[in-house]
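Quick one: structure for this chain?
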Amino acid sequence: MLGEGGVPIILMHGLLGSSRNWRSVAKELTNGSALHCLDLRNHGNSFHDEDASIRAMSDDLLHYIKHHHFSEVILCGHSLGGKVAMHFACGHSSLVTKLIIADIAPRSYPPEHHIPTLDSLLGLDLSSLSSRKEADELLSSSISHWGFRQFLLTNLVQEGEGFRWKANIQVLRNSITELSSNPLLAQDRYDRPTLFIRGGKSGYLRTEHIPEAKQYFPHSQFEVLPLAGHDVHVEDRPGFLAAFQNFLFSA
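Got it. Here's what it folds into:
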């Protein structure tokens, strides 16, 4: 948690990410509000559970808000965290004053997109690993992008003389069809200010998705960061921060 006072801001990461993904952004969001960067269940330092559904993650968020006695919050989620944020805002709109969604749309995506990555991680024999470098080399044959491998390997931690995954990879693999689906029902609505920030080089949230998004979020606006891909808050941090802060301080 960073800061104090004001309406608390809760930040949620994407699939196979963790709260640390928001670290650099959180340090620059100095608007006087308390910032809470959460680890979703089965990610980061959070607990593992067989139920990896978006509904369950939304219930966890409600428990967190009630535990801290927040009367209202500002929600921001990237990718999977954005799906959780959308689901929560539609179900508990009185608790959410503003909603920021980073590069995800309220729609279903092909689960096959994530399966090769999850299978590659599950295929690593952790008992035979001698170093993180070796893990990186073994993954390079199936995951060619160096930066993406480094992101994935933030989930690999040393434990004693061996290694383990912090994220519950097998349960996430088992749940990927549900996690890839539209988190909203046809009647869901959130009638308060909403900002979608999308990457110009990303296909997750495209111009043709905007009308559908506006059906669920009628008071939404859309900001494009032309040089960013899916990880908008990482690939164009200044642009993301500017859009985020302009939205926070708008009427």
